[in-house]
Structure formats: structure tokens, C-alpha cells
Amino acid sequence: MDNVVASLSKKRRRDKLELQEPSANKDGGYENFDLISRLPDEILGSIISLLPTKEAARIPILSSRWRHLWRSAPLNLVIDYNLLLKRSWKERDCTAIISKILAAHPGPARHLSLRSICLHNNLYARFDGWFRSPALNGLEELDFYGRNSQSLVPPSVVRFVPTLRLASIGGCDLSRIDIAPTLLLPQLKQLKLYDIAISELALHRLLFGCTVLESLDLQSIHGIRIVRIVSLTLRSIVVYVHNQADMVELIIEYAPCLERLIQLGKEGPRTSRVIAAPKLAVLGYLTPRISEFELGTIIAKEIISISLTTSVRTVRILVLDSIGPNLDVVVGFLRYFPCIEKLYIQSHLRMGMKNVRQYDTLDPIECLELHLRAIVLKTYEGKRPDVNFAKFFVLNAKVLEVMKFGVCGNTCNEKWMANQHRRLQLDNKASRDAQFEFRRDYDSYSFQYNKHIHDMWVLDPFDRSLCKCCQLVS
What pTM was estimated for this model as a whole? Predict the structure, then answer.
């Protein structure tokens, strides 16, 4: 009995210390002052909901003040590959843990990510049961992947549509889900669909129901040849096509808020038409594999021949894939997008490309005179076609601030750079303040893969210098 009384007394003293007022010490500081624990439960719950699942579940051991908070905070359940590798877990371990967590937490839920567990036939019933769990009431973010584009999706997933703000769904067959014309997703702002099968009608209905959608990411969409987009709210569109049998044509009929259009992949879409996007500021990744690209009155065929009647002055960032690199083609784009501030070039060297072009001061290029401040050249080899291409900008870009060279191979040493300095005539640069940086190019495809491509707070989604995990050549 004495032991029980002593234990209770010790507990009361510990809890009192956690809640007592701060006491000043002789240095003017404070002792025993836990600012975080003094925050209201609602704020603490929000903080916990942002933590990884493992760390959030450990919160109760920090303080008795925190013991009830994990269950009262919105659930953040993420089962990812890093967790599997660290714990050497197998699929059956994960499914048991997920079921246990959903049974213990009363809800609501903020984030559910099951990317590392494939939705195959053996787990269909288990996924359906998880999606029906009360712990997932009010779910805001959903991320899961089936085994392939033939995997069926449990119909219970539809119950999340009133509250979802972010959805990433892959490896599934959405063509078998009844997407009614009246389906509404009133909170959804980001939607990513990858490696899925869906009909043109179903996709149209899905997008029509996303009344506040800002970011759309379509990657390897099967069963659909033409994608038509009409949206009053979309600000960012990314399209990735890997197979010629997939999406062939992208038509943006009306997108008054669209700021970014980024096309990735090896095969297209073969034809892209932007009919009305008056705020478009970021455009790429334009490659010779695109048979035809239309933006207003601009028509580009395989990024070789271009025709237009008027220019587009809204585009500030342009990403091009150029074989050669072809200086005449790139200069042509600069005339048609006269307000470009950042130019990214993924070059594919072709010997014999002369790139000898004199700048006609009687026919100035507005972009070079007033706007172009940054150029990034990837897969730069320092051979004659490369040098002549880059030298044109060194000698004629009058407001250039920085030019970055992503150098192929192991040639980027001091001797090689001194030789490039001479050949590029950097001492005769048109912009007095221009800086030139040579770096070994470890990632020749970093234009195509960027985790911040939809983050609208990043003005330039291709600028990797803003993120430590992305700092390669940017």
C-alpha cells in the first residue's frame, strides 16, 4: 500500500512540474518551462497530424499532458518503402499493423498513404474494409497504388469524395467504377492519376466534378486517345506519355487560370493544342517527338518549323529539348515568346550542326535585349555545336545574370574550363554582371522529374536550387 501511495504522490509531483508557471533563474532565463505543452489541444493535435506515423504514435511517452493527444489528433497513416526497409517488414506485417491502427484510432483522418502495399485480388476485401473504417472519416489526403491498370478499386473509396483535398491513385482500373455525372469533389485541389485505365467520358465527368481543382497530373493513362480539359480553376497541368498507344492528343479548350503546362515522357502526347490559357507562364518540355504543338496562333511541328501571326507575352519560363542543339529553332521560339526570363535547354549533340548566326541589331530580339536573365544548358559537351550555340547567348543576352552548364562525363576540370572560357569568349560577354557556372551533370533528366513541379509557391518548378534534395544542376 505504501508503494502505491508513493507512486501516486510521485506522479502528482511530476504532473505539477509540467504545468507550473516558469521560474526565472539568475541569468534571466527560465527553468521547467514547456512552451509546447501549454498550447491548446487543437493546435497540438494539428502538429501531431503532420508527424510521420511512427513518431506520432510515440508522442504519449513524452508527457502525461500528451497521452490522449494521438487518439484525438487527425490520423496521419503512411506506410512507405522507407518504413519497410528499416523494419524488414513483409506485406502481412503491414496489413496487420494498419488494421490495428485503424481499430485503435477514433478518427478523423488527415492523410492515408498505402503506396507500398499493392491493391491486388488477395487484399481487395482488406482494402475495402480499411476504406470503410470510422478512423478514416473526413479523410483529406489519399495515396494508394494497385498492382496494375487492371486492378479493381473498392467502391468504398467513393465515400471520401466530400472531404478529399489531395488524391494520388495509380495502378487501377477506373473504367469499371460508375462515375456519375453528378459526382462532386468540392474540396479536391490536387489530383494525380498514373498507370490507370479510364474512358474519355469517365475522365471528363471526374474533372467536371472537381470544382476547385488547381493541379492535375496525368501519367500513363490507358484507354484514352484524346484528353479535353475545360477548367475555371486549374493552375498546373502535367502530362506524361510513355506508350504511343496511350494519349495521343491533349486539348486545353479553356483554362483561364492555367499558369503551368508541362509535358513529359518519351512519346508525346503527339499533338497538343492550347486554345485559351491567357495566364500561361511556364511551358515545357517541348521536344521533337511532339508532332504538332499549338498555342493560340503559334504552330510548331516537331519543334523544327514554326509559324504564327502574333507572339505570346505571358510565358516567362521555357523548357526545350533540342537536337543539335539547333540555334535557329531556339531563337525562333524566343521571338515567339518575347518575354522569356529563364530558358532551359536539354541538348542532344549532333555533329555537323554549325550554329553560326550573326545577331542583327537592326532586327533585335526583345527577349535578349530586355528579359532573358537565366539559361541552363544540360548535357553540354563543349564541342563545336555546343560552343557556338552557347556563345551566341554569351555575346548577345544583354541582361543575362547567370548561365549554367551541365557538363557530361568527367571532362569538367580546371584545364577544360579554362579552354571553354576562351572558346565561349566570356571576356566579351554582353552582360557585365553575368556569371557562368560549370558543373558535372549527374542527372541528365532532371528537367523531367521534379518533386516541386506542382508547388505554386515555387515560381520556377525547374529551379532545383530551392530544395536541398533537388540540388543537382538547376
Answer: 0.82
Rounded Cα–Cα distance for residues 325 and 250 (Å): 26
Residue 4 has pLDDT above 60, yes or no: no
DSSP string, 30-98: EES--TGGGS-HHHHHHHHHTS-HHHHHTGGGT-GGGTTHHHHSPEEEE--HHHHHHHT--HHHHHHHH
Q: What is the pLDDT of residues 389-425, one digit of tens each?
A: 999 999 999 999 999 999 987 788 889 999 999 999 9
Phi, psi dihedrals of residue 276, rounded to the nearest 5°: -145, 105
Mean pLDDT of 214-243: 92
Strand pairing class (305-307; 298-301)? antiparallel
Sequence-distant (≥ 6) Cβ neighbours of residue 230 within 8 angstroms: 253, 254, 255
Other beta carbons less than 10 A from residue 278's beta carbon: 11
CA atoms of 79 and 93, how far apart (whole Å)? 11
Mean predicted confidence (pLDDT) in 111-126: 80
Q: Which residues pair with 167 in a beta bridge?
A: 142, 191
**Beta pairing class for 317-324 and 342-349:** parallel
Tell the residue number behind the cell numbers 539559361, with chain if given: 375
CB-based contacts of 434, cutoff 8 Å, min separation 6: 394, 397, 400, 401, 402, 403
Task: Considering only residues 120 and 302, tell me which one the structure prediction assigns the higher pLDDT.
Answer: 120
* Mean pLDDT in residue range 428-455: 79
Residue 233 DSSP code = S
Q: What letters, b where the CB count within 10 A reaches 16 and e where it falls short, cover 207-242? A: bbbbeebbbbbbbbbbbbeebebebeebbbbbbbbe
For 360-394, the pLDDT digits (tens) are 888 899 999 999 999 999 989 999 999 999 999 99
Cell representation of residue 34: 514547456
Extents of the domains making up the chain = 39-73, 311-474
CA–chain centroid gap for 330, Å, is: 26
Which among 345, 357, 430 has a CA at the least distance from the CA of 381? 345
CA distance 228 to 74: 37
- The fold of 311-474 is 3.80.10
pLDDT at 472: 45
Q: Distance between CA 39 and CA 34 in Å, rounded?
A: 10
